[in-house]
């Protein structure tokens, strides 16, 4: 492991009230001491204050003072230091956080002063990687840090917090203990067949693996799709014939004029995307070009894009004009959505006699319908509620943390396959040595989830997606 001392700006780019520089490693306190002048207790910081020399900083204390260029004595900024000595810090190394004013130039200058003291600029995610390597958290918790930072909704935030506090880790650890228990009994039977052979209960171990291991692994695998919806949000698309009010509906959902609305059919030529949050779920809404026969060449390109959005959408909002009867094109469009979660949105419900004008044919009567008026905003809350209901109806919650990413899902698939082979081997009296190989495969997959055993290139890929400073 690289034990050099690292530093990075930990706050987002741009200007702000406060900017934080994080320093971690064995030389963190000495390097900061070289550029920091501490103010005596109860006094305002001044450039004449003496250097602390490093030994006087107590852990979990904050110190007021100045950052000075040690060569020229030039004052850079008045700051507060937060000192956290190892192992009671985020990385379990000596950590100092410099709270300066939040201008990009002042933060850059302080960082350069630290680099001149032999500190190395941190790589993306390097602080969290050190926290993982030093045993402060396992890999699932480290990955949850990135999910927490990128959370777009309350649901995503709750999921990340549950995983960061170790709920998923606890379940995976329980699965591992069960596998180790079976493996120990099996290898005892292999090494001491005369003594342990009669005591090894293959059918009992098979039942134990089915109930205590495979069932939990499969629950986590099934929960992946739920985690995907909550983590990445839901993709929804607004479709329908031209001039049925798709763009008006989108503006109403977002409560802002995001899409251009005119009385001219075919105004929307390209797809427009925006996010909204309903019941803590982030929903990507796409307004699309109207679907119709014989479009002009430019409009045809927009319709092709609409069909691409339809293919990838989780939820389709099929908009109908309550002021016009259903025609063949409406039925054809609906027929292309047989494998999708669909809401029929009867727009322009404010029109007189709309219920008499718009009558659904038998093929469309089984779909869920909501009447709205994008002009007056009625029915919009019910539509948002329906979208959220559709999301949560597909969320297979389990009594523990969600599986939040594709890497972990793939490893759970590997573990499930290996455990299934073990169960089959026990039930069919395969050689214990062969069953042991499958058990080791299952354990390897489980251990890679938490990072107990994981290749360096896997860690490189995981932490490269983090921001610098975290």
Automatic annotation (TrEMBL):
Membrane-spanning segments: none
Subunit structure: Homodimer. Heterotetramer of two MnmE and two MnmG subunits.
Gene: mnmE
Note on how the cofactor is bound: Binds 1 potassium ion per subunit.
Subcellular location: Cytoplasm
Species: Desulfosalsimonas propionicica
Main location group: cytoplasm
Domain TrmE-type G: 233-392
Gene Ontology CC terms, in alphabetical order: cytosol
Binding site residues for (6S)-5-formyl-5,6,7,8-tetrahydrofolate: 22, 97, 136, 470
Similarity section: Belongs to the TRAFAC class TrmE-Era-EngA-EngB-Septin-like GTPase superfamily. TrmE GTPase family.
Residues that bind Mg(2+): 247, 268
Primary enzyme class: hydrolase
Keyword line: Cytoplasm, GTP-binding, Hydrolase, Magnesium, Metal-binding, Nucleotide-binding, Potassium, tRNA processing
Listed name of the protein: tRNA modification GTPase MnmE
Swiss-Prot/TrEMBL GO biological process terms: tRNA methylation; tRNA wobble uridine modification
Cofactors: K(+)
Entries under Gene3D superfamilies matching the protein: P-loop containing nucleotide triphosphate hydrolases, Probable tRNA modification gtpase trme, domain 1, tRNA modification GTPase MnmE domain 2
Binding site for GTP: 243-248, 262-268, 287-290, 347-350
